[in-house]
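Q: what sequence does this backbone want?
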């Protein structure tokens, strides 16, 4: 940590003393927020406010993060979600998702989004200081039966949190092995995305067109890569998640806003990052 980073941390910590509704924020978490905002102090303040406010209010995403509860066990059974060990040449860290169980009757969007929130928490804890972050959604096995189980409200909350509150430097969002009705999926999510984020979305009919963005060697064996098989990557990451189960439960309880202590705001208070 250099002297400029330490100075910025102290500025944020001083500001936090004037925000009694917010929980205690560690120096390393402050640094992650600063990093995600390219060390813009004022933007960092807004992101911190949004992060804890949304975690408190978006109960559909953050309630009961106990990985042994039935809902999250369901999500872990149907989803392969894993960070990849090797960064891209630009220094971007990558996460990849696909359906492990393609039966639409087992698919629950609300359970998956709660699980994704925990996965992203762990991912950013480990790789939040990377130069950038890339997501890959492999649509293999995604059907109209799954599409019918998607709803707008949880999608809206998740997209709002990712864009306005998550301490992440998104550099690309890739959809691979796209389905013929991908236009319907994009119709659902496009109104929820800022222009800057929408321009990061890349659609790939085949995995080969992904390789210029994420080199093949960084990817799982199923893509011809050297990262290991999906099962190996998933099993290792899920074991890590389960080992940290109690930490997620404690974090959720200790990192909410207390609106009764929120300083009075002049005019309309916006939750969202300016």
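A:
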């Amino acid at each position: 940590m250099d002297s400029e980073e330490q100075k910025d941390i102290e500025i944020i910590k001083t500001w936090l003393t004037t925000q009694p509704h917010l929980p205690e924020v560690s120096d390393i978490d402050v640094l992650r927020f600063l990093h995600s905002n390219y060390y813009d102090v004022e933007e960092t303040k807004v992101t911190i406010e949004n992060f804890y406010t949304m975690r408190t209010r978006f109960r559909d995403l953050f309630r009961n993060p106990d990985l042994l509860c039935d809902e999250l066990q369901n999500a872990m059974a149907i989803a392969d979600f894993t960070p990849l060990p090797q960064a891209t040449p630009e220094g971007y860290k990558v996460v990849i998702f696909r359906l492990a169980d393609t039966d639409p009757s087992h698919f629950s969007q609300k359970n998956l989004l709660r699980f994704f929130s925990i996965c992203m928490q762990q991912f950013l804890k480990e790789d939040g200081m990377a130069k950038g972050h890339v997501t890959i959604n492999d649509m293999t096995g995604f059907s109209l039966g799954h599409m019918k189980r998607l709803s707008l409200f949880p999608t809206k909350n998740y997209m709002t949190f990712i864009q306005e509150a998550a301490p992440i430097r998104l550099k690309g969002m890739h959809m691979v092995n796209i389905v013929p009705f991908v236009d319907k999926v994009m119709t659902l999510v496009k109104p929820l995305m800022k222009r800057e984020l929408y321009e990061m979305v890349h659609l790939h009919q085949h995995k080969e067109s992904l390789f210029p963005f994420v080199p093949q060697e960084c990817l799982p064996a199923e893509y011809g890569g050297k990262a290991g098989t999906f099962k190996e990557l998933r099993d290792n990451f899920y074991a890590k998640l389960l080992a940290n189960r109690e930490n997620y439960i404690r974090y959720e309880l200790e990192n909410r806003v207390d609106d009764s202590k929120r300083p009075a705001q002049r005019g309309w208070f916006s939750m969202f990052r300016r």
